[in-house]
Amino acid sequence: MNAPASPLHIAHQTQTSIDTDIDPEETAEWRDALASLLKAAGPARVRRILDMLAAEARGPAVGWQPARGTPYVNTIPADAQTAFPGDLAMEERLASLTRWNALAMVVRANQAYGELGGHIASYASAADLFEVGFNHFFRGGPAPASDLVFYQPHSAPGVYARAFLEGRLSEHDLAHYRQEIAARRHGARGLSSYPHPWLMPDFWQFPTGSMGLGPISSIYQARFMRYLQHRGLLDTSSRKVWGVFGDGEMDEPESMSALTLAAREKLDHLIWVVNCNLQRLDGPVRGNGRIIDELEALFAGAGWRVIKLVWGSDWDGLFARDTQGALARAFAHTVDGQFQTFAAKDGRYNREHFFGQDPALAALAQGLSDEQIDRLKRGGHDLVKIHAAYHAAVRTVDQPTVILAQTKKGYGMGEAGQGRMTTHQQKKLDRDDLIAFRNRFALPLTDEQAARLDFVRPAEESAELRYLHERRAALGGPVPVRRSYAAPVTVPSVARYAEFALAADGKEMSTTMAFVRMLTGLLKDPVLGARIVPIVADEARTFGMANLFKQVGIYSFSGQAYEPEDIGSVLSYREATDGQILEEGISEAGAISSWTAAATSHSVHGLAMLPFYIYYSMFGFQRVGDLIWAAADQRSRGFLLGATAGRTTLGGEGLQHQDGASLLQAATVPNCRAYDPCFASEFAVILDHGMRAMLERQEDVFYYVTLMNENYAQPSLTGGVEADIIRGLYRLARHTPAGHAIGRVRLMGSGTILREVLAAAECLATEWQIDAEVWSATSFSELARDAREVERWNRLHPQSSPRTSHLAQCLPGTDPVVAASDYVRAWPQLAGAFLAAPFTALGTDGFGRSDTRAELRGFFEVNRGHIVLAALTALRAQGRVDAKACADAIERYGLAPEAPAPWAV
């Protein structure tokens, strides 16, 4: 529906239906005066007068607050619409073909294989929203000309169906929807369930299947485009970021969490289309209210331009005849649950129950047949109205725009699914339903072809395909397309920025400080420096990065409009339009989204960037793990740095701040390389290797590396161990007793607990006559990765000479191995499963505590005394020492055998 000839009259009718007017004559005079002003001076003058009156009315004498929201009609009235520039009948045919092929793809897969799943109803509701975008707005081609489009995940079948019409996917491909493994055997391309760049690296750009992540990611992608523009790295001024999302998806906190950022930074190249089909998976999104009203208030309050696209062109005539505002009043009192009932019912029902509720409404419907009432479109199914909304959105200045498009879930599915509670799960249709769908959209199929679910693609020289190709050519090429064509970036030699760490000679520092010093050096590199994106949530000073404020500045789209309190300080706070640091405030979700935008720049923008996001390690994988998985899916490249890492390094902070699991979580992400170095020199080697892998060799990997806030002596790097540091294990030291050794153990340590391992090895040699090797385990996950690959190769190649993993090469035989870390036992146990030797893992299972580092390490049983006891216990099992030695160790080191286990309290 569009606004009627007198929008003031509709607003009045809606309001007076709620409030009793004590002086209707005076009210009419005010209304007439305003209508006269509108006619004489235009809307700009009306807005000025209303702004003045509103300012007066908000004062304490009146205390007025405006009602939220606008009437339940279209924002763009019919007389303000731009002319539709395309062939309307042709585009409706293309939309119908795409609808059918999407439906056929899902139903065929489920008829043949039973439980593959897929979604029909979501794309049925969104098809026209996408079709207008594909034909008129979504620009393709290489960056930086092409637009970025985030697709509603449940609509993926429709995107595949359109790519089929374009000739980018074959019928054979469509027949292997959600059969990504079997497709290879049949020479087809398997089509992933939702947008997944990892699985379809030349098709999808952004993963949106985990709902809520697409919205926040689109905002930070749009902001990163401005960042690149303001820093003079890339002209992104002509690109738009589109997001097509669901109304139910807006309930996800990530969907809403960055709305004010988009408005604050005036991201007018950001356009969201919220497909308001009013229904989520099980029922209405807001059965007892109206989600469009709710979202209008939220977005408008956050500073977005809101365009309501509620009713189609068929309603224009009804509004024109509705001189009493009956439609607006009826809509104001109809909740979404009832709208869904109207969607699921036929024209006769709607005549009786919607138009029949008011004599004025009944009169409006008198000239309509039941079929015409049934065909009255909601705004999101009207190509002309959609185009008008999109056209207005792309011309909006200084604001992001959201289009709230009302649709019907399962549109066109009739009794099989339109507007029904079960429609989201609808994956199969019977013969009569398929024929009814065929008839509804006038598809060129016989009854038998429809029942067989034949795909439909007109001849290449047909008018339909010529039109489709012409429209895409005019917009630069097909979408979605993912490209990865960024030129390699030369990485400086490690000695240029990390010589202090490689030759530390016992200088005390934390690995966090070492990282900041290395980063400072890298930022000065003439080639790489400009490509680095330092990112923090709100802890730059905590991590010792304040020196970078003046060196490279904090990015701000508006510069610095104030004089900072510490302006005279060497480390004063400096914001700048060309600032390099992204400081996101207290929003880990925002910071990781910025990191992902930078980490995917090689494919999104054709410009390789290198983001470093440093954060409290506890607030990484545990807090935003789903966003990290999404980053992995889209082949991100960059560094995640878990600072204050481990459960015993952050003394005093307690349970919520002490991280014991992030490394284990990182190990589950296939393209994440997780490292837990103890020394600055180890970190330098990992940093150099990672940069060369991502920037020079252009591998689709990213790195999670822990950093400590604990100052201790840093040794120089022993030459020749660099490759083993990357593999995850190298021999650091050996302590032998002065006399005859009564046993031999190998001790493994990672992170800060490696220092306890070194101390334990010395104790074993000097106090217990045990020969103790010390191995620095920079990455238990890399050791396990290599060992798994070797194990698999040997299992599948029984007639070939067996291979040996790096772990087995380092630790052969049966001498006991004790591994200790500042993380849960499952972290070192990743590698322990592949050893032939007896293996003991010590870790920090349980809740964190507030105390000193020494007390924490004793409590979690990872200090030197517990490591010594673990080694003696393993040797006792081999008959090398007796039980008394173990008892003596318990007494000597003050261990508490009767204390409850740390994971039990």
From TrEMBL:
- Recite the UniProt keywords alphabetically: Oxidoreductase, Pyruvate, Thiamine pyrophosphate
- Where the record annotates domain Transketolase N-terminal, the positions are 209-315
Indicate the segments forming the Transketolase-like C-terminal domain, all copies: 728-862
| E.C. designation(s) | 1.2.4.1
Reactions listed under catalytic activity: N(6)-[(R)-lipoyl]-L-lysyl-[protein] + pyruvate + H(+) = N(6)-[(R)-S(8)-acetyldihydrolipoyl]-L-lysyl-[protein] + CO2
Mind telling me which Pfam families this protein's record contains? PDH_E1_M, Transketolase_C_1, Transketolase_N
Per the UniProt record, which residue ranges are transmembrane? none
Region (Disordered): which ranges? 1-22
List cofactor names only.
thiamine diphosphate
- Enzyme's top EC category: oxidoreductase
Note the superkingdom of the native organism.
Bacteria
Provide the Pyruvate dehydrogenase E1 component middle domain boundaries: 502-715
User: Briefly, what is this protein's role?
Assistant: Component of the pyruvate dehydrogenase (PDH) complex, that catalyzes the overall conversion of pyruvate to acetyl-CoA and CO(2).
What's the protein called, per UniProt?
Pyruvate dehydrogenase E1 component
Q: Which organism is it from?
A: Ideonella lacteola
User: Lineage, please?
Assistant: Bacteria, Pseudomonadati, Pseudomonadota, Betaproteobacteria, Burkholderiales
